[in-house]
Amino acid sequence: MSDFDPKLVSAEVLPIPADDLSRDLVVANADGNLPHLGLVGDTYTVLLSGKDTAGKYCLIDMHVPPGGGPPPHRHDFEETFIVQAGEIEATFRGKTSTVRAGETLHIPANAPHQFRNASKENVRLLCICAPAGQEGFFEEVGVRVSGRTVAPPPLSPEEQKAFGEKAMALAPKYRTEFLR
């Protein structure tokens, strides 16, 4: 049985556009000279931004220590997580599942979700957001750290409150809504 749906295929076949010579090959090294951004206790490294992909998607390497992960939220873009090491608890529309190394989790646009590292080991995820844009949110709210696995500095209660207020204020700009 095939999952092919002929209704999704256009009746008109369009030619493939010419090569866009203004775009270059990008080789990204997660441990190299890329933006490493600390937020909510995690460290996110932007491997490919919308500038690299003509806005089609971004690719983020995520280092999530035990207890890490974002609060419940939803956003108007597709998000895929490829678990490289460890395991996460992912909550999607109120149902929690465990996703382990070697597995991929896809969150459709606008669906409420969150993930967290409920284990005692670090987790490494690759996150794809399509279209691109989420990397801009991380850059605006995160703090630069020196490497892919370097934890952000701990925040005082006042700094945590300011961080939360900044994230909430920026969320609409990046088509994101935090849920309670």
UniProtKB/TrEMBL annotation:
SUPFAM superfamilies: RmlC-like cupins. PANTHER family: PUTATIVE (AFU_ORTHOLOGUE AFUA_8G07350)-RELATED. InterPro entries: Cupin_2, QDO-like, RmlC-like_jellyroll, RmlC_Cupin_sf. This is Cupin 2 conserved barrel domain protein. Residues 62-129 form the Cupin type-2 domain. Pfam families: Cupin_2 (PF07883).
